[in-house]
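Need a sequence for this fold. Nothing fancy.
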């Protein structure tokens, strides 16, 4: 996300107008350390008003913008009530519990590049940087619904990258073991 888009989102966050009578403002608790409550707020930011009947936004957000708002609130020292383990799937945009399901390209590559046989530490690092350079921010998050399809694709990608950079290491590597490592729970 470029700086102009980020600034525009931050400006929109500042412009959110809660169209709610004053007595309710202080009594409504929006966040808890619960995935479902965070999902409710995420949906509310997008204009899906299931749980917040008395609240109304003047502007609605895309799934990416809504998660960016949640992420900004989570990272703020002032608003530390959104759990760290909530992540957004880059494929379906659903929120998921990172500690219980899903994964990321970075985690898959980080835990498996070192398993490739015949490479020294510098070559392992070079391969890790090389494969991550193909992704926009060096990381793609995926929920449990997409984990196995993604890890299969990542395994093929990793094998091809290894073959391109270090062909001598492909034959001596146990790719079944690497696939099993990629498919482990986070």
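Here you go.
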């Amino acid at each position: 996300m470029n700086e102009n888009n980020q600034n525009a989102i931050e400006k929109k966050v500042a412009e959110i107008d809660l169209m709610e009578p004053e007595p309710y403002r202080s009594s409504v608790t929006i966040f808890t350390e619960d995935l479902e409550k965070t999902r409710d707020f995420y949906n509310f930011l997008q204009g899906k008003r299931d749980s917040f009947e008395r609240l109304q936004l003047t502007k609605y957000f895309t799934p990416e913008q809504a998660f960016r708002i949640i992420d900004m609130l989570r990272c703020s020292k002032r608003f530390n009530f959104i759990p760290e383990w909530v992540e957004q799937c880059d494929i379906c945009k659903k929120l998921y519990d990172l500690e219980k399901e899903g994964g990321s390209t970075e985690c898959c590559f980080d835990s498996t590049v070192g398993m490739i046989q015949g490479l020294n530490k510098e070559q392992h690092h070079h391969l890790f940087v090389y494969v991550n350079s193909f992704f926009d921010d060096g990381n793609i998050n995926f929920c449990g619904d997409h984990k196995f399809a993604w890890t299969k694709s990542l395994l093929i990608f990793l094998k091809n990258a290894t073959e391109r950079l270090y062909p001598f290491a492909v034959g001596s590597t146990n790719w079944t073991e690497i696939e099993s490592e990629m498919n482990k729970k986070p």
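For context: Strands lie at 86-88, 95-97, 103-104, 141-142.
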